[in-house]
Amino acid sequence: MAKMIEVQNLTKQYKGAKSPSVNGVSFSVDEGEFFAFLGPNGAGKTTTISILTTTLAKTGGEVKIAGYDVDKEARKVRENVGIIFQQPSLDLNLTAEENIRFHAVLYGMCGYRPSFRLMPKFYRDKITELAGIVGIQDALFKPIKKLSGGMQRKLEIIRSLIHTPKVLFLDEPTQGLDAVSRRGLWGYIDDTRKQCGTTVFLTTHYIDEAENVDKVCIINRGQIAVCSSPEEMKKHLQYDPTPKVCLPTLEDAYVEFINKHQEVLA
Ligand SMILES: Nc1ncnc2c1ncn2[C@@H]1O[C@H](COP(=O)(O)OP(=O)(O)OP(=O)(O)O)[C@@H](O)[C@H]1O
Protein backbone atom coordinates (compact mmCIF):
# COMPACT_ATOMS: atom_id res chain seq x y z
CA MET A 1 0.00 0.00 0.00
CA ALA A 2 1.28 3.49 -0.89
CA LYS A 3 2.61 5.65 1.91
CA MET A 4 0.76 8.97 2.01
CA ILE A 5 2.76 10.48 4.86
CA GLU A 6 6.43 9.67 5.39
CA VAL A 7 8.26 11.41 8.23
CA GLN A 8 11.88 10.59 9.04
CA ASN A 9 13.86 12.06 11.88
CA LEU A 10 11.86 15.31 11.78
CA THR A 11 13.30 18.09 13.92
CA LYS A 12 12.17 21.65 14.59
CA GLN A 13 13.97 24.07 16.84
CA TYR A 14 12.38 27.53 17.00
CA LYS A 15 14.72 30.51 16.84
CA GLY A 16 16.02 31.34 20.29
CA ALA A 17 14.61 28.12 21.86
CA LYS A 18 16.94 26.13 24.11
CA SER A 19 15.79 22.74 22.80
CA PRO A 20 13.88 21.39 19.79
CA SER A 21 10.06 21.38 19.99
CA VAL A 22 10.05 18.35 17.68
CA ASN A 23 13.04 16.10 18.14
CA GLY A 24 13.80 13.22 15.74
CA VAL A 25 10.21 12.18 15.02
CA SER A 26 9.61 9.32 12.55
CA PHE A 27 6.37 7.66 11.45
CA SER A 28 4.42 6.81 8.31
CA VAL A 29 0.75 6.68 7.34
CA ASP A 30 -0.63 4.44 4.57
CA GLU A 31 -3.13 5.49 1.93
CA GLY A 32 -6.66 5.52 3.34
CA GLU A 33 -5.45 5.12 6.90
CA PHE A 34 -7.08 7.01 9.77
CA PHE A 35 -4.19 8.18 11.96
CA ALA A 36 -4.28 9.97 15.31
CA PHE A 37 -1.40 12.05 16.60
CA LEU A 38 -2.05 12.61 20.29
CA GLY A 39 -0.17 14.29 23.10
CA PRO A 40 -0.48 16.77 25.96
CA ASN A 41 -0.37 20.57 25.57
CA GLY A 42 2.93 21.73 24.16
CA ALA A 43 4.00 18.22 23.03
CA GLY A 44 4.71 19.30 19.43
CA LYS A 45 1.55 18.33 17.55
CA THR A 46 0.79 21.68 15.89
CA THR A 47 4.46 22.19 15.06
CA THR A 48 4.51 18.79 13.31
CA ILE A 49 1.25 19.33 11.43
CA SER A 50 2.40 22.80 10.31
CA ILE A 51 5.57 21.30 8.80
CA LEU A 52 3.64 18.48 7.13
CA THR A 53 1.28 21.01 5.50
CA THR A 54 4.12 23.33 4.34
CA THR A 55 3.18 26.26 6.58
CA LEU A 56 6.32 25.98 8.74
CA ALA A 57 9.94 25.19 7.78
CA LYS A 58 11.66 22.27 9.52
CA THR A 59 15.22 22.38 10.80
CA GLY A 60 16.00 18.73 10.10
CA GLY A 61 14.74 15.42 8.69
CA GLU A 62 12.70 14.33 5.67
CA VAL A 63 8.96 14.70 5.04
CA LYS A 64 6.97 13.45 2.05
CA ILE A 65 3.23 13.91 1.58
CA ALA A 66 1.50 11.92 -1.20
CA GLY A 67 5.02 11.19 -2.47
CA TYR A 68 6.03 14.87 -2.67
CA ASP A 69 8.82 16.49 -0.67
CA VAL A 70 7.52 19.32 1.55
CA ASP A 71 10.52 21.55 0.78
CA LYS A 72 11.16 20.86 -2.91
CA GLU A 73 7.56 20.23 -4.05
CA ALA A 74 5.52 22.38 -1.68
CA ARG A 75 2.95 23.37 -4.32
CA LYS A 76 2.24 19.71 -5.16
CA VAL A 77 1.89 18.95 -1.45
CA ARG A 78 -0.67 21.77 -1.06
CA GLU A 79 -2.73 20.50 -4.01
CA ASN A 80 -3.06 17.15 -2.26
CA VAL A 81 -3.92 18.24 1.25
CA GLY A 82 -6.86 19.75 3.07
CA ILE A 83 -6.31 21.41 6.43
CA ILE A 84 -8.41 22.46 9.34
CA PHE A 85 -6.19 24.58 11.56
CA GLN A 86 -6.54 25.01 15.29
CA GLN A 87 -6.60 28.79 14.82
CA PRO A 88 -9.33 30.29 12.59
CA SER A 89 -7.97 31.35 9.20
CA LEU A 90 -10.95 32.95 7.45
CA ASP A 91 -11.21 36.36 5.77
CA LEU A 92 -13.81 38.13 7.90
CA ASN A 93 -14.60 40.71 5.21
CA LEU A 94 -15.86 38.10 2.74
CA THR A 95 -19.04 36.02 2.79
CA ALA A 96 -18.86 32.36 3.75
CA GLU A 97 -19.24 31.24 0.15
CA GLU A 98 -16.60 33.72 -1.09
CA ASN A 99 -14.13 32.28 1.41
CA ILE A 100 -14.75 28.82 0.02
CA ARG A 101 -14.69 30.02 -3.61
CA PHE A 102 -11.22 31.59 -3.27
CA HIS A 103 -9.96 28.44 -1.61
CA ALA A 104 -11.38 26.24 -4.39
CA VAL A 105 -9.67 28.39 -7.02
CA LEU A 106 -6.40 28.47 -5.07
CA TYR A 107 -6.40 24.67 -4.79
CA GLY A 108 -6.98 24.25 -8.54
CA MET A 109 -10.54 22.92 -8.31
CA CYS A 110 -11.88 25.35 -10.93
CA GLY A 111 -11.38 28.84 -12.39
CA TYR A 112 -12.60 32.01 -10.66
CA ARG A 113 -16.03 33.47 -11.47
CA PRO A 114 -17.26 36.73 -9.89
CA SER A 115 -20.41 35.19 -8.38
CA PHE A 116 -21.64 31.86 -6.97
CA ARG A 117 -24.26 31.63 -9.74
CA LEU A 118 -21.52 31.69 -12.39
CA MET A 119 -19.38 29.01 -10.74
CA PRO A 120 -19.43 25.47 -12.28
CA LYS A 121 -22.26 23.14 -11.28
CA PHE A 122 -19.94 20.61 -9.55
CA TYR A 123 -18.67 23.40 -7.28
CA ARG A 124 -22.19 24.61 -6.44
CA ASP A 125 -23.35 21.03 -5.80
CA LYS A 126 -20.36 20.25 -3.56
CA ILE A 127 -20.82 23.42 -1.49
CA THR A 128 -24.54 22.74 -1.11
CA GLU A 129 -23.86 19.15 -0.03
CA LEU A 130 -21.20 20.14 2.51
CA ALA A 131 -23.21 23.08 3.88
CA GLY A 132 -26.14 20.71 4.44
CA ILE A 133 -23.96 18.23 6.30
CA VAL A 134 -22.64 20.76 8.79
CA GLY A 135 -25.89 22.76 8.84
CA ILE A 136 -24.85 26.20 7.59
CA GLN A 137 -26.98 26.49 4.43
CA ASP A 138 -28.65 29.66 5.68
CA ALA A 139 -25.35 31.35 6.47
CA LEU A 140 -23.52 30.71 3.19
CA PHE A 141 -24.07 34.15 1.74
CA LYS A 142 -23.65 36.18 4.91
CA PRO A 143 -20.45 38.07 5.78
CA ILE A 144 -18.30 35.93 8.06
CA LYS A 145 -18.05 38.57 10.76
CA LYS A 146 -21.79 38.14 11.42
CA LEU A 147 -21.39 34.39 12.11
CA SER A 148 -20.80 32.82 15.51
CA GLY A 149 -17.45 31.14 16.29
CA GLY A 150 -19.06 27.71 15.88
CA MET A 151 -20.48 28.61 12.46
CA GLN A 152 -17.09 29.91 11.36
CA ARG A 153 -15.57 26.57 12.39
CA LYS A 154 -18.09 24.71 10.28
CA LEU A 155 -17.20 26.90 7.34
CA GLU A 156 -13.52 26.05 7.70
CA ILE A 157 -14.46 22.39 7.63
CA ILE A 158 -16.32 22.79 4.35
CA ARG A 159 -13.43 24.76 2.92
CA SER A 160 -10.89 22.05 3.74
CA LEU A 161 -12.96 19.38 1.97
CA ILE A 162 -14.11 21.28 -1.12
CA HIS A 163 -11.29 20.05 -3.42
CA THR A 164 -11.55 16.42 -2.19
CA PRO A 165 -7.95 16.20 -0.89
CA LYS A 166 -5.94 12.95 -0.73
CA VAL A 167 -4.75 13.73 2.78
CA LEU A 168 -6.87 15.59 5.28
CA PHE A 169 -5.11 17.20 8.25
CA LEU A 170 -7.37 17.95 11.18
CA ASP A 171 -5.83 19.95 14.02
CA GLU A 172 -8.48 19.78 16.76
CA PRO A 173 -11.26 20.05 14.17
CA THR A 174 -14.27 19.93 16.48
CA GLN A 175 -13.11 22.47 19.03
CA GLY A 176 -16.10 24.76 19.68
CA LEU A 177 -18.67 22.63 17.81
CA ASP A 178 -21.90 21.43 19.43
CA ALA A 179 -22.55 17.68 19.84
CA VAL A 180 -24.85 17.38 16.82
CA SER A 181 -22.37 19.14 14.53
CA ARG A 182 -19.50 17.03 15.89
CA ARG A 183 -21.37 13.85 15.08
CA GLY A 184 -22.36 15.17 11.64
CA LEU A 185 -18.78 16.11 10.86
CA TRP A 186 -17.37 12.73 11.90
CA GLY A 187 -20.04 10.94 9.87
CA TYR A 188 -19.03 12.94 6.82
CA ILE A 189 -15.30 12.41 7.37
CA ASP A 190 -15.87 8.64 7.74
CA ASP A 191 -17.87 8.57 4.51
CA THR A 192 -15.25 10.62 2.66
CA ARG A 193 -12.51 8.32 3.90
CA LYS A 194 -14.34 5.18 2.83
CA GLN A 195 -15.61 6.47 -0.52
CA CYS A 196 -12.55 8.44 -1.65
CA GLY A 197 -9.78 6.55 0.21
CA THR A 198 -8.81 9.82 1.93
CA THR A 199 -5.99 9.53 4.43
CA VAL A 200 -6.87 11.36 7.66
CA PHE A 201 -4.32 12.78 10.10
CA LEU A 202 -6.00 13.88 13.32
CA THR A 203 -4.82 15.73 16.39
CA THR A 204 -7.36 16.15 19.15
CA HIS A 205 -7.69 16.48 22.90
CA TYR A 206 -11.06 14.66 22.69
CA ILE A 207 -9.49 11.20 22.79
CA ASP A 208 -12.86 9.51 22.16
CA GLU A 209 -12.68 10.91 18.61
CA ALA A 210 -9.63 8.70 18.03
CA GLU A 211 -11.24 5.49 19.35
CA ASN A 212 -11.77 4.08 15.83
CA VAL A 213 -8.53 5.12 14.18
CA ASP A 214 -6.21 2.56 12.54
CA LYS A 215 -3.07 3.82 14.24
CA VAL A 216 -2.24 6.10 17.17
CA CYS A 217 1.07 7.83 17.87
CA ILE A 218 1.59 9.63 21.15
CA ILE A 219 4.08 12.49 21.09
CA ASN A 220 5.46 13.73 24.39
CA ARG A 221 7.98 16.55 24.76
CA GLY A 222 8.80 16.51 21.07
CA GLN A 223 9.42 12.76 20.77
CA ILE A 224 7.27 9.81 19.74
CA ALA A 225 6.55 7.88 22.90
CA VAL A 226 4.48 5.05 21.41
CA CYS A 227 2.87 4.09 18.09
CA SER A 228 0.33 1.25 17.77
CA SER A 229 -3.30 0.38 17.13
CA PRO A 230 -5.83 1.57 19.76
CA GLU A 231 -6.50 -2.09 20.64
CA GLU A 232 -2.83 -2.81 21.37
CA MET A 233 -2.62 0.37 23.39
CA LYS A 234 -5.61 -0.60 25.50
CA LYS A 235 -4.13 -4.07 26.03
CA HIS A 236 -0.57 -3.14 26.92
CA LEU A 237 -0.62 0.30 28.49
CA GLN A 238 -2.34 -0.49 31.73
CA TYR A 239 -0.65 1.22 34.59
CA ASP A 240 -1.60 -1.60 36.90
CA PRO A 241 -1.57 -4.89 34.93
CA THR A 242 -3.83 -6.70 37.42
CA PRO A 243 -6.46 -7.79 36.68
CA LYS A 244 -5.31 -8.70 33.18
CA VAL A 245 -8.07 -7.08 31.17
CA CYS A 246 -8.00 -4.45 28.45
CA LEU A 247 -8.63 -0.87 29.48
CA PRO A 248 -12.15 -0.04 28.24
CA THR A 249 -11.33 3.00 26.10
CA LEU A 250 -8.42 4.63 24.32
CA GLU A 251 -8.86 7.63 26.60
CA ASP A 252 -8.23 5.38 29.63
CA ALA A 253 -5.07 4.00 28.01
CA TYR A 254 -3.93 7.49 26.99
CA VAL A 255 -4.41 9.00 30.44
CA GLU A 256 -2.60 6.09 32.14
CA PHE A 257 0.24 6.37 29.69
CA ILE A 258 0.69 10.12 30.03
CA ASN A 259 0.49 9.98 33.84
CA LYS A 260 3.12 7.25 33.94
CA HIS A 261 5.44 9.08 31.54
CA GLN A 262 5.09 12.49 33.19
CA GLU A 263 6.39 10.85 36.39
CA VAL A 264 9.25 9.14 34.59
CA LEU A 265 10.24 12.33 32.77
CA ALA A 266 9.66 14.76 35.63
N1 LIG B 1 6.43 30.15 17.20
C1 LIG B 1 7.01 29.55 18.23
N2 LIG B 1 8.15 30.02 18.75
C2 LIG B 1 8.77 29.40 19.79
N3 LIG B 1 8.29 28.30 20.41
C3 LIG B 1 7.13 27.79 19.93
C4 LIG B 1 6.44 28.38 18.84
N4 LIG B 1 5.31 27.65 18.59
C5 LIG B 1 5.32 26.65 19.49
N5 LIG B 1 6.40 26.73 20.30
C6 LIG B 1 6.77 25.81 21.38
O1 LIG B 1 6.92 24.51 20.83
C7 LIG B 1 6.41 23.52 21.72
C8 LIG B 1 5.38 22.68 20.99
O2 LIG B 1 4.25 23.50 20.69
P1 LIG B 1 3.02 22.98 19.81
O3 LIG B 1 2.11 24.14 19.60
O4 LIG B 1 3.55 22.28 18.62
O5 LIG B 1 2.37 21.93 20.82
P2 LIG B 1 0.94 21.18 20.72
O6 LIG B 1 1.23 19.74 21.01
O7 LIG B 1 0.26 21.49 19.46
O8 LIG B 1 0.18 21.85 21.95
P3 LIG B 1 -1.41 22.12 22.16
O9 LIG B 1 -2.05 20.80 22.39
O10 LIG B 1 -1.41 22.96 23.40
O11 LIG B 1 -1.92 22.85 20.97
C9 LIG B 1 5.84 24.28 22.93
O12 LIG B 1 6.83 24.27 23.93
C10 LIG B 1 5.63 25.67 22.41
O13 LIG B 1 5.77 26.62 23.43
UniProtKB/TrEMBL annotation:
InterPro entries: AAA+_ATPase (IPR003593), ABC_transporter-like_ATP-bd (IPR003439), ABC_transporter-like_CS (IPR017871), ABC_transporter_ATP-binding (IPR050763), P-loop_NTPase (IPR027417). The keyword Nucleotide-binding applies. The keyword Zinc does not apply. Residues 5-246 form the ABC transporter domain. Coiled coil: none annotated. It comes from the Bacteria. GO terms for molecular function: ATP binding; ATP hydrolysis activity. PROSITE patterns: ABC_TRANSPORTER_1, ABC_TRANSPORTER_2. Keywords: ATP-binding, Nucleotide-binding, Transport. Belongs to the ABC transporter superfamily. PANTHER family: ABC TRANSPORTER ATP-BINDING PROTEIN, ABC TRANSPORTER ATP-BINDING PROTEIN NATA. This is Putative ABC transporter ATP-binding protein YbhF. It comes from Oxobacter pfennigii. The lineage of its organism: Bacteria, Bacillati, Bacillota, Clostridia, Eubacteriales.
